[in-house]
Amino acid sequence: MDIIISKAVNFQEYLLIDQDTIHLEHYLKTAPNHWLFIEYNNPQDVISLSSINFKFELEDLYDKVDFSVTEE
Length: 72
What we know:
Layout: E1 13-17, E2 24-31, E3 34-40, E4 46-49, E5 54-57, H1 58-61
Antiparallel strand pairs: 1-2, 2-3, 4-5
């Protein structure tokens, strides 16, 4: 069975969020097949999602995360 992804799906930006440390990768489409990459590691960094007119601080994203917990 072939899977067809609709060309109607039009990502303008997306985030990759690290679960083990304060780290976020932000990709923003600037032109067809061209993406701007922004990396955030500072809890006071402000992430701006221009496609939905929304801003937040990185520390808010990790507010309830306990990094001292490890899996065994």
